[in-house]
Amino acid sequence: MAEQEPVLELEMYLIRHGQSRGNAGLTPADAPLADREDPVLSELGVYQASLLGNALADVDFDAVYASPLRRAVMTAAGLLAGQAAPPPLRLLPLLTEQGTPDEYEGQDLPELEKLCPGCRMAEGFETGRRIIGTPDQPDPVVFARAKETVDYLRERHGNGQRIAVVGHACFLTYVIFRICGIKDAIPNFDIDLTNTGVTKVKFYMPGTNPFGDTVFAYVNNTAHLDRLRNQ
Q1: Three-state SS for 40?
Q2: Which CATH number fits domain 8-229: 2.40.50.100, 3.40.50.1240, 1.10.1670.10, 1.10.10.60?
Q3: How many angstroms separate the CA atoms of 210 and 35, rounded?
Q4: Where are the alpha helices (DSSP H) in the chain?
Q5: The whole model's pTM is what?
Q6: What is the pLDDT of residue 29?
Q7: Cα 203 from Cα 154, distance rounded (Å)
Q8: Quick check: 26 pLDDT over 50?
Q9: 8 A C-beta contact, residue 167 and residue 66
Q10: Whether pLDDT at 1 is above 90
């Protein structure tokens, strides 16, 4: 009897945003709350996002999601610029960086549209808070948000679709650990997610892939930044 071919349900590309002005140390400690919690990309970050878009131009994403924080929206705009037929960017509050304070409500959609024309709130999040940062919450609560994020995306995409998810180093680490089955506490090791690093995860129909239902094709791939390293 012939072995069953693996059935790919979803390819998910988890992407950290490009270098922000905060990452570059360009945001003063006494800057307004929006600039401290929601900085824009630095000049280098914009270039990194452009290199990312060029590198993934042949993927043909079925959907692109991003955190509603400006650095993620701008990175997603760079990614979409490389797409021949770009889908609209969907802003998913669940992807907000961990620890973003409740007092920061995020930018209005018209302001975010200036950074990525045509972006819209993701289905089910058209009203309500644009920022969900679970500040000062214990690991199980953050892992629950990570699970909710993955479940939300998997419920809406399948049949071998490819989706890009642009977020932040800390919360994407929770997402990766949750995909691995960790749900109670961060383990005693970390994953170095660098600016515009790409982690590709393949989800298979249960039982059809001999190597497991979930496969990490690569983690924190930054090959697209080789041009910067060689300058």
Answers
A1: coil
A2: 3.40.50.1240
A3: 48
A4: 33-37, 43-55, 70-81, 109-115, 139-156, 169-179, 226-229
A5: 0.96
A6: 87
A7: 9
A8: yes
A9: yes
A10: no
What's the average model confidence in pLDDT over 27-50? 95
Contacts of 116 (CB under 8 A, 6+ apart): 66, 73, 74, 76, 77, 80, 89
Cβ distance 112 to 84 under 8 Å?
A: no
Amino acid making up residue 177? F
Rounded to 5 degrees, what are φ and ψ at 123? Answer: -55, 130
43-55 helix and 70-81 helix, angle to the nearest 10 degrees: 40
Radius of gyration, alpha carbons of the chain: 17
What is the residue extent of each domain of the chain? 8-229
Residue 43: strand, helix, or coil: helix
The 10s digit of each residue's pLDDT in 109-167 is 999 999 999 999 999 999 989 999 999 999 999 999 999 999 999 999 999 999 999 99
